[in-house]
Structures are given as structure tokens and as C-alpha cells.
Amino acid sequence: MHVFDRKKDLESFLQNERNKNRTIGLVPTMGALHQGHLSLVKKAILETDVVVVSVFVNPTQFDQKEDLEKYPRNLEKDLDLLQSVDPNIAVFTPTASEIYGNQIVSKSYDFDGLDKVMEGAFRTGHFDGVGTIVELFLKTVSPDTAYFGEKDFQQLQIIKKMVETKQLPYAIVGCPIEREVHGLAMSSRNERLSPSTRKEAGFIYKTLKAAKAKFGTESAKGIKDWVNIQFAENKTLELEYFEITDEDTLTPMNKKQANQKYRAFIAVYADGVRLIDNLRLN
Fold first, then answer.
1. Residue 155: what are its φ and ψ, rounded to 5°?
2. Alpha-carbon distance 224 to 218, whole Å?
3. 3-state SS of the chain: helix, strand, coil percent to 5?
């Protein structure tokens, strides 16, 4: 396996690969890898010749210092997992100063309103931080294709918007959510949950599926009211938001329109850990 912590070494390696007419795939991660990440890596292996996995906990997308400090990190385990998938993977593990330079700050972006709802409304500056680090990684790796999980669907749409707006020559591919046995969306944050809470958190996906079943006959307000009641009665999980939006614009749905795709989004606290999930409704 090829492990790089300096940009110039990675760029030199990738230039050699391009000289052999090999295509490059990028899977950006914040480490603490799980099967959800590995599903992205496996798709990248199938579709490109050389796969780069970045492992970097990005400080500029955390709005709470405590959340950044508690974010799980285990590079040795991450490398073992990637080695087990394919020993030819290239791994990029920069320090913050290596990737950002002297100023570890976010740029400001115009995401055409995609960043104003849901995660953006509750996490100040989060998507500017995401956009900044993804743009830095894209320009460092210059992949033919970059792969992102649909668990962070709002993030996926924002990255697509950034690439479109800046006319960057990279294909952005979204990949399905991988779930644990009880339905909880796989996330590095799940490692911070107690075993009993982790099992109970399957309630989040159960609620999303019930909302989908109601979507054909009930209004968005009726479904949201029902979801609020379900979580008010749950002693383990605390609902932060539940929203139904247009899938492309992320505009909250008021009245259902024909030929529009809708998706439900949810954020929940469990054991003080913030969990997000989403599900297409039609």
C-alpha cells in the first residue's frame, strides 16, 4: 500500500500513473473507517485504475470544538482495513498545515441556498468547511471520479453544486447508505454509542420507513407532526429536526408536485452523539 503525508509526494505518484493512462478515483474520508466507507472504496476500485483514499479529520467543518476533539481517530486500524480491501490503494494522510498551508480557515461559497436548510441551519459554517477541504483534495488529487456516501446527502448535493459552479473537471458519484443490523446508518460516530443505545438508534431508520409509507396519503405537515410525536415518546433519542424536501433543490416541501423527487432528512441526538440519516420517499 502507498501511504503519503505530503502533497508533492502524492502528486508525483499520481502523475506517474497518469503517464500510463490510468484513471484516478478519490474517496475522501475523515477516518474511523467502517463498511460504509469500504463500499465507496470498492466501487472506486471497480470503476477506476488507481484509488486514493484521504484520511483527514477536517477542523474547519466542525462548529463545536468538543465534537472535533471527540471525533474517533485510528489510522493504524484504517490502514489495515484498506490493506484488506486492496493492497494497491494509495492513502493520503496530511496534517492540517500540509493541506491548508499557513491559514487553516474556510473559504466562502455560494451554494445557491442548498446550505441554508437542515444541516446548514444547525451547524454554522459547516458547509463552507466541507467545500473548502473537498476542493483542496480534488485539486490535489485531480481524480477522474470522486465518491461520496448518500448518508450525507445534503453534503453530496452541495459538492455537486460547487463542482458545477466552479466548472471543475471531476465526476461526483453518490453511493447508497450502508446500514447496521438494526437499520442505523453506518457512521464513524456510532462508535461513541453504548451497545444498548446503538441498538435503540435503529428507531431512526424505522421512523423514516414509516414516513415513507405515509408519504403517499398524508401531507408533509401531517408526517412531520407524527414524527415529532414518535420522538417525544422515545426516552433515548432526541429529535433535532425532521424535514421533507425536494431532492434536487433541498427546498422544504409544502405541496406535493407531480414528477418531483422527495427525500426525508433527520438529525437525532443519542448519548450526546449527533446522528443523521435520510431516505428517498418516491
1. -60, -45
2. 10
3. 45, 20, 35
Q: Dump pLDDT digits (tens) for 133-143.
A: 999 999 999 99
Assign 255 a pLDDT band (cuts: 50, 70, 90).
confident
Residue 40 has which C-alpha cell? 465507496
pLDDT of residue 65 exceeding 90: no
Mean pLDDT of 169-193: 96
Whole-angstrom Cα distance, residue 59 to residue 50?
Answer: 27
Cell of 173: 458519484
Q: Catalytic residue among 2, 34, 37, 182, which?
A: 37
37 annotated active-site: yes
Answer yes or no: pTM beyond 0.90.
Answer: yes
- Round the average pLDDT of the chain to a whole number and report it: 96
CA dihedral 37, 38, 42, 44 (to 10 degrees): 30
* Dist. CA 251–CA 31, nearest whole Å: 31
Q: Helix 126-141 vs helix 153-165: angle between axes, to the nearest 10 degrees?
A: 60
Nearest to 152 by CA among 42, 250, 253: 250
pLDDT of residue 125: 92
For the chain, first and last CA: distance in Å? 42
Strands 262-270 and 237-246: antiparallel
Name all contacts of 208-213 with Cβ < 8 Å and 24+ positions apart. 208/264, 208/266, 208/277, 208/278, 208/279, 209/279, 211/242, 211/244, 211/264, 211/279, 211/281, 212/264, 212/279, 212/280, 212/281
pLDDT at 42 over 90: yes
Q: Between the CA atoms of 21, 27, 28 and 32, what dihedral angle is there, to the nearest 10 degrees? A: -140
